[in-house]
Amino acid sequence: MKGLARTGKGQIGWVEKPRPSAGPRDAIVRPLAFAPCTSEIHMIWGEMGDFMPPDRIMGHEAVGVVDEVGSEVCDFSTGDRVIVPAITPTFGRVPAQRGFAQHCNGMCSGMPFCTAKDGVFAEYFHVNDADANLAHLPAGISLEQAVMIGDMMTTGFYGAELADVALGSTVAVFGIGPVGLMGVAGAHLLGAAQILAVGSRPNAVKVAREFGATEIIDYHNGDTVQQIMDLTDGEGVDSAVTAGGDVSIIGQAVQVLKPGGTLGNVNAMEHAENIPIPLAAWGSGLGDKTIRGGLCPGGRARMERMAALVKHGRLDPSLMLTHRFTNFADIEEALILMHEKPRDLIKPAVILE
Q1: Which residue in 7, 30, 31, 226 is a FRET match for 349, CA 20 to 30 A apart?
Q2: What pTM value is reported for the model?
Q3: Which of 244, 268, 293 is the last residue of a domain?
Q4: Nearest-angstrom CA–CA distance, 242 and 198
Q5: What is the domain extent for residue 287?
Q6: Within a 13 Å sphere around the CA of 232, how many CA atoms are in the beta-carbon half?
């Protein structure tokens, strides 16, 4: 089979590999839609892929059709259309029983795509623990919507969940790329009253407002922290979600948190050894401000809940799709586009049907 791989640092190319085979509890899936993510950009052009073997096939966001199932798979059959989560843990491990399946075999190991095995940018790809990880694609959900569920939607929502967004609360979302936009949508659905979205790209600003942002903070108009404090009458916010930027974003979020506030980080960062936190803003360490960061949950139950929100019209994640491709080979162009990030980009995807 053919797949798009990281052939070296800063390099991608097409490779030929044997079609994967399914173990007793696994499935082999053929893609119907897939999308590149900033994580791939970190892995190919940044530091996160330095540990990878040569010619690792990339990709972890896909919707597909089941091509083969293992002998012990009960709930899926050949021909089923499925949502494939980016995070496909081994649910039999002890960390999963503790509630952190995304770290089932060590830190962040619940995402084996790209990191421990070939990813989804291939003619066929392998899904472990199929009954626990795949979710049936409900009728009425388009491929454009579904391809946003497995990573962007669950990750952005997890940011809002980590930040303990509550009814009537005030929330700041730092970064309104696709994950941040889903953070805005998650905060809105969790009942936030005031949602301040930090970003400036016109397409993203428009979608942020459609997803529930009440104010837009543009750093071109002045200091981000000061703008947030001014819009909250100097009090700051109850919750902050960091979904983009470098390590300095954490410090900004801490500065705008009220005492008792919570920061939820779903932004993977690199090019630094430490995260700077302004000591005064944290009350010299006594400010009762909580910082939480996590890899989004995956698995079937999570995907079914995300899909239910889309099916019943609570939100339309396909509003983030700005660049649509229709051929298998177009994933290379879509990935390069994600790397270059033109100003009109939110999310590219390849839709094969």
Answers
A1: 7
A2: 0.96
A3: 293
A4: 10
A5: 157-293
A6: 26
Sequence-separated contacts (24+) of 275-283 with Cβ below 8 Å: 275/247, 275/250, 275/251, 276/247, 276/248, 276/250, 276/251, 277/250, 277/251, 278/251, 278/254, 281/251, 281/254, 281/255, 281/257, 282/254, 283/259
Of 257, 275, 293, the last residue of a domain is 293
Residues 143 and 186 in one domain: no
Other residues' Cβ atoms within 10 Å of the Cβ of residue 329: 11
Q: Chain centroid to CA 349: how far?
A: 14
Report the candidate in 348, 336, 340 with the shortest Cα–Cα distance to residue 12. Answer: 336
Show the beta-strand stretches assigned E in the chain: 2-8, 11-16, 27-34, 56-57, 62-69, 81-84, 125-127, 135-136, 170-174, 194-198, 215-217, 237-242, 257-265, 290-293, 321-325, 347-351
Q: pLDDT 10s per residue in the chain (353 long)? A: 999 999 999 999 999 999 999 999 999 999 999 999 998 999 999 888 788 899 999 999 999 999 999 999 999 999 999 999 999 999 999 999 999 999 999 988 889 999 999 999 999 999 999 999 999 999 999 999 999 999 999 999 999 999 999 999 999 999 999 999 999 999 999 999 999 999 999 999 999 999 999 999 999 999 999 999 999 999 999 999 999 988 999 999 999 999 999 999 999 888 888 999 999 999 999 999 999 999 999 999 999 999 999 999 999 999 999 999 999 999 999 999 999 999 999 999 999 98
Number of domains in the chain: 2
Distance CA 179, CA 200 (A): 15
- The reply to whether 208 and 330 lie within a common domain is no
Task: Supply 235's token pair.
Answer: 């009090």
The reply to whether 139 and 251 lie within a common domain is no
What lies within 8 Å, CB to CB, of 335 at 6+ separation is 4, 12, 36, 40, 44, 58, 121
Please check whether residues 222 and 274 belong to one and the same domain.
yes
